[in-house]
Design goal:
By secondary structure, this protein is an all-alpha fold. 84% of the residues lie in helices and 0% in strands.
Length: 143
């Protein structure tokens, strides 16, 4: 084997498959919980919430996984990694705010939360993007 192929294989062995497997386990458990019929209002509310937000959960899980995947490579190839982390953080922020919407009360509070959701998403996106690129360039200068 060539040296480049050995490097790729060693990187593929280091990929955090645990994150991907945990997403699969979560989906299996959620499927099982959807089959179980239990007439508890709290159980039904939580299950409905998870079912309604399954796309967001899968999205931020896969984006963070792709960010981890690209971060294993060296400088020119790892530059998309901060973008995946930043967009994953937007999806995670949306999910966290949907939890707040679930437990919030009056409509006035929901309007305030919607404003903070957009503000927090923008701030978190740019902070993660800037600091991740600083980290990439710092690591590339150390080599």
């Amino acid at each position: 084997m060539k040296k480049e192929q050995k490097d790729v294989y060693s990187i593929l062995k280091q990929i955090p498959l645990v994150k991907l497997l945990s997403l699969i386990v979560f989906l299996v458990v959620l499927s099982i919980l959807n089959v179980i019929k239990w007439e508890n209002p709290f159980y039904i509310q939580i299950l409905t919430f998870l079912n309604n937000n399954i796309i967001i959960i899968i999205t931020f899980s896969l984006l963070f996984y792709l960010g981890d995947l690209f971060s294993f490579f060296k400088f020119p190839v790892n530059t998309p990694s901060p973008l995946f982390y930043a967009f994953g953080s937007i999806a995670l922020t949306k999910f966290i705010f949907s939890i707040f919407y679930l437990i919030s009360g009056p409509a006035e509070i929901i309007q305030i939360l919607k404003f903070f959701e957009y503000l927090a998403s923008a701030i978190i996106f740019f902070v993660i993007l800037i600091f991740e690129y600083i980290e990439i360039f710092r690591r590339s200068n150390l080599r």
